[in-house]
Amino acid sequence: xxxxxxxxxxxxxxxxxxxxxxxxxxxxxxxxxxxxxxxxxxxxxxxxxxxxxxxxxxxxxxxxxxxxxxxxxxxxxxxxxxxxxxxxxxxxxxxxxxxxxxxxxxxxxxxxxxxxxxxxxxxxxxxxxxxxxxxxxxxxxxxxxxxxxxxxxxxxxxxxxxxxxxxxxxxxxxxxxxxxxxxxxxxxxxxxxxxxxxxxxxxxxxxxxxxxxxxxxxxxxxxxxxxxxxxxxxxxxxxxxxxxxxxxxxxxxxxxxxxxxxxxxxxxxxxxxxxxxxxxxxxxxxxxxxxxxxxxxxxxxxxx
Length: 304
What we know:
10 strands
């Protein structure tokens, strides 16, 4: 067999999968000029956004609305979740000591009024990266005192097996007073194992519970990807679990497979189904709900 045949076959399969996407999942990437401006500023400083690393379908819209989600502590994650496009690796990655100032400068140059800080999981770091979040937040506030900062963090477990470790790391972030604390459950309880390798449903709920324990005034937020095999009943049960730990805000979006090496899509939920689930979420008491096929966890994050 010609060595190029398996590659060509995979490429054909991928093209066929992309071309078969429902019409509601196809959209323009946005103005090239707006994309290139952001990409130039990011690349020149050697920093990263999840918008680019995750190839978010909304990045053109977000950039136009002066919003971006920065990916801190490098582009390589120490975990290997089966849905995520971010690179995986286990070797320790050296932190860029200039990253806080670089991100702050990028926020200033882009005129961002609201910024989301997220990160890869850094289980190799002594504090899981909690202190680094705070360093970046501090740098942003020095240069951009009127910019609001939302954090989207990992679960800060690092395989230590001690809840106290998680408590200390979450407390570090809460003390820095983010405008919102986001931690995604990603999927329903029954699918956590195959979807979120190294993560636990109850452990993630505990992150959100701890934020409210430390400072009830900080809004908390979580997000779910739909289309991995969950049922509507399971989605609603998950919403109820989130409300029980005081979660205020919710995003619901369609899972889209980044490549043939990732989990397949089991179902494309329709816009009408997303609208219905959004109504259910509001009836349960979430005060800020974004529910739609192309919604992602930072979508319109700065809007109330």
